[in-house]
Design a protein that fits this description.
Layout lengths: L3 H7 L4 H15 L4 E4 L2 E4 L1 H25 L6 E7 L8 H11 L3 E7 L2 H9 L5 E5 L7 E16 L16 E2 L10 E4 L5 H12 L6 E4 L3 H9 L4 E5 L12 E5 L6 E9 L6 H14 L7
Parallel strand pairs: 3-4, 3-5, 7-11, 8-9, 8-10
Antiparallel strand pairs: 1-2, 5-12, 6-10, 6-11, 6-12
Length: 294
């Protein structure tokens, strides 16, 4: 990579973390391994000697892991936490693909609200979490996966949507949110980040919703809207594959349109095993279809 920052990103670790790891390695072998100059980072003769031998050691380690995983009676477990809206629309495809690539790893999915997702990471219950930003950078390593549009969703036969061609792939701007004050709005709990984002938008636009129905489940919200029982606000990544797309209209909110940052978080300066890094990379590939600005 010839650059510590790019190398840190590839290893899912902070620049500080990779610098500390290099320093420990240099102290262990009692040799300088890298030369830093304006052109970037180059290897010293000691590093050039060490590199192919280290690669062989890692390859042997991988061979041993693969050998002992074959025929093992128990799979290794990778516990991961997801905030609602971050995985349910493509969970089957995602987990099925990962299982094919890593049959020795069993992914254990745990769903938490966004802040509890981060608590699960900091408490060691899970290795990584996928949540809504912003994330406290002083507590976690966070990598932005995508900036997902936040859609206002309503049944296409509702009077405020009738006659408008506004599909998920090309949503129209909704305009004045005060038109929703007397409508039923289906919201996630108000202490969740997604809802805080919306309540802040309501405040800026002087909107005071009078009829709020609270649910902790995106699917419940979509089902109610599909039966023309109100409006809901959800990130596009959480509703992309709903079976009711033909019944629904989607609108952007605000100018510029309201978006929701999605991020992967893990403990600061932690070393993530190869399978965990592979899982994160797979998640990033899936999120690219929703990205509007990462």
């Amino acid at each position: 990579y010839r650059n510590f920052t790019r190398a840190a990103d590839a290893c899912f670790i902070s620049t500080q973390g990779i610098s500390m790891a290099i320093l420990r390695l240099e102290n262990e072998v009692n040799r300088q391994l890298f030369i830093r100059d304006k052109q970037g980072v180059t290897l010293t003769p000691a590093a050039k000697f060490l590199l192919p031998r280290a690669e062989k050691m890692l390859a042997l380690n991988s061979e041993c892991e693969a050998y002992f995983a074959t025929g093992a009676t128990h799979q290794a477990v990778l516990p991961v936490a997801f905030a609602p809206g971050s995985i349910e629309e493509f969970a089957g495809e995602l987990l099925g693909h990962f299982e094919q690539e890593h049959p020795e790893i069993q992914v254990e999915v745990r769903e938490y609200c966004d802040t509890d997702c981060e608590k699960a990471v900091s408490g060691g219950e899970v290795e990584v979490g996928f949540t809504c930003g912003p994330v406290a950078s002083n507590l976690f390593e966070a990598r932005l996966l995508a900036v997902s549009p936040h859609a206002l969703i309503v049944h296409r036969d509702h009077p405020l949507a009738q006659g408008l061609d506004s599909p998920c792939s090309a949503p129209l701007p909704f305009g004045d949110l005060r038109r929703l004050e007397h409508e039923r709005i289906i919201m996630l709990p108000e202490d969740w980040r997604l809802s805080k984002l919306l309540y802040n938008t309501f405040s800026v636009q002087s909107v005071e919703p009078l009829n709020i129905l609270t649910t902790t489940n995106n699917t419940t919200a979509i089902n109610l809207v599909a039966e023309n029982m109100g409006f809901t606000f959800l990130p596009e990544s959480g509703i992309h594959r709903t079976p009711y797309m033909d019944r629904l209209s989607f609108f952007t909110v605000g100018d510029p349109p309201l978006t929701c940052p999605m991020a992967v978080v893990y403990k600061k300066n932690s070393f993530l095993p190869p399978a965990t890094r592979a899982f994160i990379a797979l998640i990033k590939d899936f999120y690219r279809q929703f990205d509007r600005g990462s």
